[in-house]
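Hi W.,

Here's what went into the run:
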Amino acid sequence: MDFLIFQAPMLMVQASIDGILLGILFALIAYGMALQWGVMNIINIAQGELVIMGGYIAYFMYLSGIHPAFGVIVSPIIMYFVGVGMYKLVINKVVDRDLFISILATFGISILAQQLMNFAFGADVVVAQSNFGTTMLFDGMVTIPNAKIFSGLVCIIAAIILVIYMKKSKLGRAIRATAQNARAAKILGVDTEKVYASTFGINAALCGIAGACIAITFTLHPYTGLPYTVRSFMIVIIAGLGNLPAVAISGMGLGVFEEWADYLIGTEFRIAAVFSLLVIILVYRRFKLSRKREYLK
Amino acid sequence: MNKNTLLYAGLLIFGLVGAFIFPAYKLQLSFLYILIVLAMTWDVQGGQMGYNTFGNILFFGVGMYVASSVQIAMFFSLSEWTDAGGEKTFVHTVPQFFQGFAFGILLSGIIPMLIAGIIGYGILGLRGHYFAICTLALGIAAGEIAGGVEIIGAGQGMTVPVWPKGFGSNELSSQFLYYLSFALAVITFTFLKWAYSTRFGLVLNAIRDNEDKAEAMGIYTMRYKIIGWMVSAFFVGLAGGIMGHINGYIEPTEIAFAGPTFGVFMVLMAILGGKGTLWGPLVGATIFHLFKESFWTFFLGWQYVALGVLIVVIVVYFPEGIMGWLREKYPERFGEVIDEADRKAQVILK
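Here's what came out:
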């Protein structure tokens, strides 16, 4: 087998760096998912659509002449309110119910959001040009668009701010308390309804940041949300809920895996590789646990 | 003659003469029978067994591809057929067409069943939402992989053999497919009605209610789960095979492994009708089909928006479904005996 990646070793470096920068983005989305999964016990299939929506906000700014990099500030603010609105309309009715109900309800939201975005922005693949230029390493053998470095830095800063906020602020403490025991938190005077709404809003805001980064580094299309949902689900089940370093590492691992899969088995199988990896990981964990007669909970 | 016999006879007669009473709606009725099969087989997992799967669409797509690939490959070279695309340079003769059709449909049931048996041991060990997400990923991965395989036409899809010339008209072809899908729906219904009345049905319900306890009672739950999935896969595969012929064209992500359409429809229909009941999926499929067709006709372009809203509304406000609601209202009709004293006591409590 003569793979290009083994003939040109520099491509390995290229794929790994691309993968890590991509993985930081995935980790941010996955952290949002872990947050609301842990606090509200909801799996949000519409996570990917929130990301794409955030990306379209940045793209819209680009169309109206503002530099799309400012999208990383504007998009989370708008997405926060979209998230809160989504919570008030639908999610608050499925919080205490069976997990499958939440999966199906958010699946409905995701179909709805895809179509509305399709109407609003058209079915073309779009990208917001940032004109940041590229950085060359190793005499131009490895090229990294500066936009990717920028988006990686933005995601790291956002994650740091979020961690500090969750540790120090009053709302952050309330969110953590609700995650530990919603009933006890309620008794002690935490307005859990408000906590849920803002958790969902924060999740949507994180998706907004990631989406704005995707708009300037990759491409946007109304129907490409679901792979982001699956990626973040995968990262969360590997890393566990509320474990940020593990989320970051497995996010980067997934990014590197994807870039390598891109070179090894071809771009047309990239999405298939992501989805198959999820199946393989779940089945592997199921067999590992079944030796102890346990199952994934 | 009691009420039930009358009902069955009425439905059977409707199905048999439906093709002649409503010749314009023949295609729609064939679609309806296929949808009924999908909803009923989804209910084996989702309703009776409590395993909410999004992945039955995998068997649908595999069945579709198997049926036409076998029919083509028996007489021609498959790769040349897909290379030729829409151009009909290869034409089946009448006996070739029907031999290929019979073999193709047969294998379109058997191969998905074998796949379900093989992957079942790994995947059915997952529970709850892990199972749901895993099967969701499975269906989409299958579609993406099928979109990259050259021999079955990759992303462009492949054409299904056309009805042989000189053997009846187009009318005959659509009547043939109509009766085929009607027969499939009848067989599926009868088989599941029988299966739910046996020990098998009881075990499925036991798994839904409490799997650990069922296991502790000495039931090999894994065996029953796999058999249940294989049954579903068999009928869904057949439905897929017939559906390929109804469409006349196979495309990987939009028609065969159509997660956002058929994959969701089957879940929605079963929930709308009431999951965990024999008649629920049938009723749900009928109502859903009527709703869908009127939306697809009158609000073209907005149909998926309507679908999204419909999913949210049904799931959030109507999770019990129509049969569940009827059961709540008229428990006597469902053979539930309610003690008079109990009922009075409940009224007092309120």
